[in-house]
Amino acid sequence: MAVTLADVAARAGVSAATVSRVLNGNYPVAGSTKTRVLAAVEELEYVVNGPASALAAATSDLVGVLVNDIADPFFGQLAGAVQSQMGPGTPGGGPRMAIVCNTGGSRERELTYLTLLQRQRAAAVILTGGAIEDPEHIEALSARLRRLEAAGTRIVLCGRPPLPDAEAPAITFDNRGGAQRLTEHMLSLGHRAIGYIAGPAARTTTRHRLEGHRAALAAAGLGGGADRLTVHGGAYDRAAGYEGTLALLDREPGLTAVLAANDTVALGACAALRDRGLRIPDDVSVAGFDDLPFAVDTTPALTTVRVPLTDAGAHAGRLALSPDAPAEGVVTYPTTLMPRASTAPPPPEKP
Amino acid sequence: MAVTLADVAARAGVSAATVSRVLNGNYPVAGSTKTRVLAAVEELEYVVNGPASALAAATSDLVGVLVNDIADPFFGQLAGAVQSQMGPGTPGGGPRMAIVCNTGGSRERELTYLTLLQRQRAAAVILTGGAIEDPEHIEALSARLRRLEAAGTRIVLCGRPPLPDAEAPAITFDNRGGAQRLTEHMLSLGHRAIGYIAGPAARTTTRHRLEGHRAALAAAGLGGGADRLTVHGGAYDRAAGYEGTLALLDREPGLTAVLAANDTVALGACAALRDRGLRIPDDVSVAGFDDLPFAVDTTPALTTVRVPLTDAGAHAGRLALSPDAPAEGVVTYPTTLMPRASTAPPPPEKP
DNA sequence: TTCCGAGTAGTAAGCGCTTACTGAATCAGC
DNA sequence: GCTGATTCAGTAAGCGCTTACTACTCGGAA
Lengths: 351, 351
Hints:
Two copies of one chain form a homodimer. Chain A contains twelve helices and twelve strands. By secondary structure, the first copy, chain A, is an alpha/beta fold. The first copy, chain A, folds into three domains: 5-48, lambda repressor-like DNA-binding domains (434 Repressor (Amino-terminal Domain), Orthogonal Bundle), CATH 1.10.260.40; 58-173 and 309-335, 3-Layer(aba) Sandwich (Rossmann fold); 175-306, Response regulator (Rossmann fold, 3-Layer(aba) Sandwich), CATH 3.40.50. In chain A, strands 2-1-3-4-5-11 form a six-stranded parallel sheet, with helices on both faces. In chain A, strands 7-6-8-9 form a four-stranded parallel sheet, with helices on both faces. A two-stranded antiparallel sheet of chain A has the order 10-12. The longest helix of chain A is centred in the middle third of the chain and has 16 residues, at 135-150. The relative contact order of chain A is 0.12. The first copy, chain A, binds a DNA duplex through residues 2, 4-6, 14-18, 20-21, 24, 27-30, 33, 48-49, 51-58.
């Protein structure tokens, strides 16, 4: 039915092995033969059978990318950057294809996808986004990853810290430092009643950002009441920001600033503040994290911390494809404070 | 090295064929045997070799999804919805995996990815987003799709009209009607000088939305000067909105409304208006299209047209998996006007 | 008791490709 | 002109799985 290697070989008057060698180019073939084979490929519109070659060569050209939420631009950018390194004419030989797997932040699906990728004999797997900090889950995850590595799959972590006993290279963001600088920025503006809406608990990203915030507070001698002004959202979404802000406002009516776990959460915070009749930044300052494209378009423009998603994603993609695992351990990308109009000095004390 | 079917068979004391049958469940196997096999699979941590089974069975469990820009939430939502139909415990037998391919709107990459998917012997391919209306490209695309279909790959179109001579099912959005209703909404508010920032030319989505807009204008007897107040963006992005708005403003200082090709473009339009010192909606009304999640969080909240991305994506996913091609032709999803605060009556005429 | 047809399990022939290994030229060096 | 290296192409043995086809067992109808 479909055109096979043998058909091409017959057409070109050579053996199947020669055609294979021309196509893979890892063995000397005379120029004239090569031309003839290529012509036959063209004429017959031959397309390699991926599964067959994966089986024979025990390698596949599939790379898995695990993301928490593909509809979230944070992961969209990351995935896009990873994919920019694949396709034709990219490092590591032939074209690769990225399989983006949407875990939805579910532990179970994370593991399931890993098995599915092992089943595809993926060449590499890139785990993105903060890791879940449940020892039990980490153990299960490590076990799966160990199996994958044993099967020859390269593992790359992007946006999460390295795993306890694996040597998979990790790319991380300086979330802690970014959060710290952001809080310092708020403090320097004069804010003292700063609410913090953290992401879901038991996530590395959540913890690191919160740690940075706490560190800045502590350095300013304000560490004491921090807990009271911190709430945890159920996800990194708008609802977390909205509800978190309302909760904070109830807890501390004198709130002058809200720091959100990320830009999307900040959007929800802004909505809640507006619904309560508070102006940004006149009454309350708001800041996000990540500097997603829309941050510059909110009103007022959102102060946030830029995370170099594109660079990191591309880097992860390259690491995944590099035939020789450099295993350079952890690379940390810096984060940058982006002060914009949503933060300003707090309003003068009301008499 | 890796555990194979034979290993499992040996462990369970049966033949490889039996193990295969237990795993695929399309042949009677006695309960006790099944239990024994499953236990062996468990103990050996056996994971099927996907490529091998794809080769032998001449089918793969990979589904390709072509998107224009994975970092755009529009496609992110669509891709997420498609994937929600795959994975374990979904229609069409075993777990499938979605390969999301980022074409970046490039014709060449669109074709390349299609070849790459053919190479993987994908079970189905879902093409999302507006199609490019270049006869030459359509021809090339159709040829590739015909080859894919000949190879047994199901084709599903989502968000684009059916192809000339293919019977691939298509899911479309009522872009035309949505745009028409949106323009009618503006007209009913009293706007007459309505600028339109269209998407890139030669895209079906661009054309349909523009047609709807023109139709509403014509029905109101305003069809005449429509061209003068229409600009085309180079992409569906913020820059298109920003630059398009500045161009419109130069062309018609008395502009009272800007309709954008989509929500992201509208964001750019808002930014340009603000930079020119114009208030929304007091001086100029703005509307978008798609109703992406952030539309409700802009200031003021963006009037837009809701497009049921999640439903459509899930539908496309189901169509792609359904073993028997229903080939129900074209299904059109309705779009809904979402009037919000960014549109209001035009300011009173200045004397 | 014989025979037949369910119901199960095994055998073996590929699926289309890669890649050692082998073989046939060609060619430089003496 | 002969030898040994070198270059290029063919042969064939799988890679791990699926699936006709065959073979056996067993209960019940004849």
